[in-house]
Design a protein that fits this description.
Blueprint (H helix, E strand, L loop, with lengths): L2 H17 L13 E11 L2 E10 L8 E5 L6 E6 L2 E5 L2 E5 L12 E9 L8 E5 L2 E2 L1 E5 L25 H5 L3 E3 L2 E3 L5 E2 L2 E4 L3 H4 L5 H10 L4 E7 L9 H17 L3 E7 L10 H14 L6 E4 L9 H18 L5 E3 L2 H4 L10 H4 L8 E8 L5 H10 L5 E7 L11 H14 L3 E4 L29 H10 L9
Parallel strand pairs: 1-10, 14-15, 14-21, 15-16, 16-17, 17-18, 18-19, 19-20, 20-21
Antiparallel strand pairs: 1-2, 2-7, 3-6, 3-8, 4-7, 5-6, 8-9, 11-12, 12-13
Helix pairs in contact: 5-6, 6-7
Bound molecules: ligand IDC.
The site of ligand IDC has 15 residues, from strand 19.
Amino acid sequence: MKRSAALLLAGAVAAGLTAAVLPQAIATAAAGCRVDYTIVSQWQGGFQGDVKITNLGDPISGWSLGFDFANAGQRVTQGWNATWTQSGTRVTAASYGWNGSLATNAATSIGFTGSWSGANPVPGSFSLNGTTCTGTVGPTTGAPTTRPPTTGPTTPPPPTGTTPVAINGQLRVCGVNLCNQYNRPIQLRGMSTHGIQWFGSCYNNASLDALANDWKADLFRVSMYVQEQGYETNPTAFTNQVNNLVDMATARGLYVLIDFHILTPGDPNINLQHARTFFANVSARHANKNNVIYEIANEPNGVSWSSIKSYAEQVIPVIRGNDPDGPVVVGTRGWSSLGVSEGGNENEVVNNPVNAQNVMYAFHFYAASHQGPYRDAVTRAASRIPLFVTEFGTVDYTGSGPFDQASSTTWLNLLDSLKISYANWTFSDHTESSAALLPGTCNGGNYSGNGVLKASGQFIRGRIMTPDNFPTS
Ligand code: IDC
């Protein structure tokens, strides 16, 4: 399309834009999606974009695609195969009746011509029925000119190593899942430390070797309490301790969750300055690694979701400033119960997600205490938002009491079926029943085999060591 034609159309379409309506039947939210956005041609003041939408989730019977332009000087002037609207930088394309139904893995293409000024028209924040999409954007840079269509994304070569990180590479959130470098959903299974201010001696070369080689874990969560003799007492020393543990996990090809373990007080905003300082340091230190996941608030409690969201939106930019591609996990209301433990449910997050990309939401449970209603919330939420079980216990919520094998089994079967990643509390030799190791283990040099484990530890090791079967194409 020539520039003059696009401009002629702009006025007519602008009237239509305000009156546009969403399709009648957005029956279900997409549970995963991919958008491939191509600038077919670009000229002074105008461009043409093609958008291929692939539904990676359950079948849908109507869709609404959203994305953001880089600035409000970029406008859709004429679109096809969808009802296009724009408000500020946000563009929405709603399906017609004839192209609204998308089976799982089905794709459809839509397109438009647009006007632009100031910056190149680089779009972002793609979502389908509210679910964040992965995808590609290209080409978008260079002097205004006519450009050929792009081809698809390049697929990474097959892995050469055998560790979880060697196989999966840099992770990213795709729809409601955590995806590997081949854009395939994966589940990470691993262990959480106890508070590193108390059990630091449990984390050494021998114990990390056991976790990687004997347990065949994928994930190591480093729990740095902020209060209770934690970070606030010596920020430099705790930051160094976390950095060392990240390096040790990295050397073994494990993914690492850096857990900013707020608990009491429950409002993360009280620790906001500590969080910004801490995450500025660790995200700079590990920016070039591909195995780091940032968990910015362990268990908010007694605080609204909107306050947690506000905290997240102040901490995430600090991380992104150094490490743009590291996934971030945000704690949820009621001790990371998606609000359930404080009388709420997942809708507060579904309807008001954190305004950032590559974000997941934490869910925690203690199997003897949290059952039916908690599983129901996870089951419902799993098709709407990306979940990560960054902490769970096989016992009651105090970290003690009998090991509940039946409930733990039901929970882990559910997480496996949904490909939700998890870390068990704790890889330590505390006397409490949730601690995997027998008391005194950390005084010796052997951390392998069932002989050093309590009942819960034996059960969890048996679950974690089964083959991952990570997809590699
Ligand atoms: C518990 C530890 C316990 C320690 C206590 C201190 O198991 O040894 O004395 O913290 O606060 C959580 C928290 C986690 C708790 C755990 C068990 O994230 O810090 O650890 N739990 O109570 N949420 C639910 C349970």
